[in-house]
């Protein structure tokens, strides 16, 4: 099966799409440890390695902490690296993740979103991603299997860019996308290599090699520390516009684009806007189309970048709206709403005093149904029309699912 | 859009059946999306898979509550209430069983295709792996998909003698399905 520009059309899962994306970027080192719902990525990559399609040093480590240390060290030595994990595994590598970002190692990692340790739940939820909010990583979120493949490729452009040099985590919903099989256009290796070739034209980033010791951001006190932190924060700021630019370039090379930091779906003349991320956005779009047909001016802002938080573009798109609902697939312990809601509502001084509602839905594999999306739109509409509203609604609790 | 729900048990190949169906739809220039829902992966545990098939790209990422078609790979579930839950009117059932119904199992059913997929796969593959046979039964009962793209799709999942055995299962499923119109 082929389509435009000799893409190979395949019906593959989100996990397989992630593995194809990584393979096409020709990493030098892959270090991974299996965990549900990510395991298929590793199986695929080892298949590619065995068949010769992937010429990488494959390191089957004894745990995620080692996986992150191996890819960080390899990236610092100048290699292109890949790893993937989920939930427990992400928690187990947290200190090594901080080392990766602190040393500005351009690691690319896929995190298949799953609920975190505590309550044993082999199920979807973004709590793992949320818990790495302040790790200094760039965090992206995909909606479809195609976007997973494209985002892994874009992640290398972002992580390894000379002006950025920050590790990137690509997130997608476990179960709902990891095991979703759908049509994916897999680009030829040459197209991906061309897309990544700009990195070769940039200055060589500093590499740490045996016998050539130098300080590389791992130590610093007082002003030294402050300076390193400040540089890291500035790089994160630059990553926002860079991601928009990479998305536009993707269109030229692949014929696809997604909107950069955020996707604005029918928001231009919308009164009511939902802000959401991940796989649920596909369902929300179908509901928005249906409500539009009935005359309701509603739209969706899909967050594609969680860190750095795309607040400038959010303010731009949310200004002048009459009501906003933010859907979180995670909880905010000790917060007055979902974690992403809290961040969006902190912008209200910039986009105006309008009702903003927090919805928690989809945690622990609860299904974000079309009916839930209707309910959320109805509630935001009522709030926009002046009715009293609760700041926080647990949609998945009120619509109890077995 | 056609919404299909697959009911089976871990090890019967329900998930693979739903994926092969999506693959076949893409081969005829349409779209297919399928995903399973289960807790811990274990053989014998109930598995539900969801398949959506359409001429347009599929955006829904939710479970299926009102299927047009249910495909039941596990004979023991033929009288389970949740198999028929939310059936649309004039719905279709494709069932792996060794006997016909004596009465209509659900008021919304209009068509039922029954095939002894366990027996056929025992003969062809050597084990009760009903999934590919059920794809043939799906084609025979619904008329929605020709055998050709399904046969081609099998090549993405099986090789060699296993592929040949599964192609035989698919064909026999198509030929040996008995369709009842209620």
Q: Summarize this, please?
A:
The complex is a heterodimer of chains A (402) and B (182). Chain A is α/β, with parallel strands linked by helices.
Q: How many distinct helices of chain B?
A: 6
Oligomer: heterodimer
Total beta-strand segments of chain B: 7
In the CATH hierarchy, what is the superfamily of the largest domain in chain A?
Answer: Thiamin diphosphate (ThDP)-binding fold, Pyr/PP domains
Radius of gyration of chain A: 21 Å
Mean pLDDT of chain A: 96
Question: Regions of chain A with pLDDT < 50 over 5+ consecutive residues?
Answer: none
Order of neighbouring strands in the sheet with most strands of chain B: 2-3-1-4-5-6-7
Number of strands of chain A: 15
Number of helical elements of chain A: 16
What would you give as the CATH superfamily of chain B? Pyruvate-ferredoxin oxidoreductase, PFOR, domain III
Protein described:
The complex is a heterodimer of chains A (402) and B (182). By secondary structure, chain A is α/β, with parallel strands linked by helices. Chain A has 2 domains: 4-254, Thiamin diphosphate (ThDP)-binding fold, Pyr/PP domains (Rossmann fold, 3-Layer(aba) Sandwich), CATH 3.40.50; 262-398, Rossmann fold. Chain A contains 16 helices and 15 strands. The two termini of chain A are 40 Å apart. With 182 residues, chain B is α/β, with parallel strands linked by helices. Chain B has one domain (2-181): Pyruvate-ferredoxin Oxidoreductase, domain 3. Chain B contains 6 helices and 7 strands; from the N terminus they run E-H-E-E-E-H-E-E-H-H-H-H-E. A 7-stranded mixed β-sheet of chain B has the order 2-3-1-4-5-6-7, covered by helices on one side. The longest helix of chain B is centred in the last third of the chain and has 17 residues, at 160-176. The radius of gyration of chain B is 15 Å and the shape is globular. The two termini of chain B are 23 Å apart. The mean pLDDT of chain B is 96. Strand 8 (181-186) of chain A pairs antiparallel with strand 2 of chain B, so a sheet runs across the interface.
């Amino acid at each position: 099966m082929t389509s435009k520009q000799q893409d190979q059309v395949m019906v593959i899962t989100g996990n397989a799409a992630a593995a194809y994306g990584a393979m096409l970027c020709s990493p030098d080192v892959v270090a991974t440890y299996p965990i549900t719902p990510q395991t298929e990525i590793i199986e695929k990559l080892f298949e590619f390695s065995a068949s010769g399609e992937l010429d990488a040093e494959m390191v089957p480590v004894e745990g995620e902490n080692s996986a992150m240390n191996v890819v960080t060290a390899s990236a610092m030595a100048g290699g292109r690296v890949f790893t993937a994990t989920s939930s427990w595994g992400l928690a187990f590598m947290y200190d090594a993740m901080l080392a990766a970002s602190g040393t500005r190692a351009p690691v690319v990692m896929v995190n298949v979103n799953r609920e975190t340790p505590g309550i044993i739940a082999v199920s979807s939820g973004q709590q793992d991603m949320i818990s790495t909010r302040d790790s200094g990583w760039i965090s992206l979120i995909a909606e479809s299997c195609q976007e997973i493949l494209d985002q892994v490729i874009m992640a290398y452009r972002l992580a390894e860019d000379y002006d950025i040099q920050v590790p990137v985590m690509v997130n997608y919903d476990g179960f709902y996308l990891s095991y979703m099989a759908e049509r994916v256009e897999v680009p030829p290796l040459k197209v991906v290599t061309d897309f990544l070739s700009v990195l070769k034209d940039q200055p060589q980033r500093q590499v740490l090699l045996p016998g050539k010791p130098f300080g590389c951001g791992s130590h610093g006190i007082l002003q030294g520390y402050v300076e390193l932190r400040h540089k890291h924060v500035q790089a994160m700021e630059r990553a926002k516009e860079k991601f928009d630019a990479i998305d536009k370039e993707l269109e030229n090379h692949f014929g696809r684009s997604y909107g950069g930091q955020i996707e604005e779906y029918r928001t231009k003349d919308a009164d009511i806007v939902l802000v959401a991320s991940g796989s649920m956005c596909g369902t929300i779009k179908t509901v928005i189309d249906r409500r539009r047909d009935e005359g309701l001016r509603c739209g969706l802002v899909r967050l594609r970048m969680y860190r750095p938080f795309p607040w400038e573009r959010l303010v731009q798109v949310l200004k002048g709206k009459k009501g906003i609902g933010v859907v979180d697939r995670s909880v905010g312990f000790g917060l007055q709403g979902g974690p992403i809601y809290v961040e969006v509502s902190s912008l209200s001084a910039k986009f105006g005093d309008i009702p903003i509602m927090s919805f928690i839905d989809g945690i622990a594999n609860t299904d974000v149904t079309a009916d839930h999306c209707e309910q959320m739109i109805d509630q935001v509409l009522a709030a926009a029309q002046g009715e009293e509203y609760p700041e926080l609604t647990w949609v998945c609790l009120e619509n109890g699912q077995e | 859009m056609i919404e299909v729900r697959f009911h089976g048990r871990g090890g019967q190949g329900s998930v693979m059946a739903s994926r092969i169906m999506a693959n076949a739809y893409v081969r005829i220039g349409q779209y297919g999306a399928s995903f399973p829902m289960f807790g811990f992966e274990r053989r014998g545990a109930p598995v539900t898979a969801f398949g959506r098939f359409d001429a347009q790209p599929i955006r829904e990422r939710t479970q299926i509550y009102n299927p047009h078609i249910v495909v039941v790979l596990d004979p023991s579930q033929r009288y389970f209430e949740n198999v028929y839950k939310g059936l649309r009117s004039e719905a279709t059932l494709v069932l792996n069983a060794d006997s016909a119904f004596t009465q209509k199992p659900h008021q919304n059913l209009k068509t039922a295709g029954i095939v002894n997929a366990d027996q056929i796969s025992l003969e062809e593959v050597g084990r009760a792996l009903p999934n590919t046979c059920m794809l043939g039964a799906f084609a025979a009962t619904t008329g929605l998909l020709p055998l050709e793209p399904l046969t081609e799709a099998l090549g993405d999942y099986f090789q060699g003698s296993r592929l040949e055995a599964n192609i035989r299962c698919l064909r026999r499923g198509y030929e040996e399905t008995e369709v009842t119109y209620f």
